[in-house]
Amino acid sequence: MRKIDKIVVHCSATRPEWMADAGINEQLKEIDRWHRERGFDMIGYSYVISRNGEAVVGRPLEKTPAAQKGHNTGSIAICLIGGFGSDADDLATEHYTPVQLARLHSLIKELQEQFNVTNENVIGHNRVSTKACPGFRVSKWLAGVNLSEATAKKPERTKPAQSKTVKASAATVAASAGTTITALSGMNENAQYIILGFAGITILFGLYIMRERLKAWAEGWH
User: Fold this and answer.
1) 173 and 83, same structural domain?
2) 115 and 207 inside one domain
């Protein structure tokens, strides 16, 4: 296996609707055809990522890409479908879909771990060329990337019986009832009525708090 020390991100410079119904494999074949027409023996990119987040292998990793003139050695070239009319300093989200960028991020992380590539060596084509490709500054994007909430795994919610706030409310009610029973021992009838009145208010308040906390739990708070 050749030595790999950098990852370079590219774009196909196509419109968002380009071959949208054809699928990623047909898009890859079309890019392969473009590159063969330019004299390459096959597609120049190592990977291609579709707008729906599918990543497919283009040129095998053991082969040097033909993607960024003068900077192919030691590189992996990743092409994002899209980027037509983009500028080098645009935002990635202006030209690519959230799932596409999420897959780009995960693929970069996988390759970094596999080949020990540093963040400083993950760049866009525009870092080594006068071209705008891929239409954003990859280093800035990678440093500040925030994956869409839609692609993030939501934490598993606890059951009501496991909720700390609900448990605390139940404990308050139970403690109030226990204290009342203890206090009634040895008191005269009038004092017992007074104590029971205060205890009833306390227990009702505790039940109200428990109800509100159960409502909060139902809305996603613990």
Assistant:
1) no
2) no
What is the pLDDT at residue 1? 85
Tokens of 21: 């119904």
Residue 144's pLDDT is 84
- What residues in the chain have per-residue pLDDT under 50? 146-167, 169, 173, 213-214, 216-222
d(CA 82, CA 96): 7
Residue 1 lies in a domain: no
**186: containing domain:** 160-218
On whether both 113 and 175 belong to a single domain, the answer is no
What is the 3 state secondary structure string of the chain? Answer: CCCCCEEEEEECCECCCCCCCCCHHHHHHHHHHHHHHCCCCCCCCCEEECCCCCEEECCCCCCCCCCCCCCCCCEEEEEECCECCCCCCCCHHHCCCHHHHHHHHHHHHHHHHHHCCCHHHEEEHHHCCCCCCCCCCHHHHHHHCCCCHHHCCCCCCCCHHHCHHHHHHHHHHHHHHHHHHHHHCCCCHHHHHHHHHHHHHHHHHHHHHHHHHHHHHHCCCC
pTM for this predicted structure = 0.66
Please, which contacts does 155-158 make with residues 24 or more away whose CB atoms are closer than 8 Å? 157/217, 157/220, 157/222, 158/217, 158/222
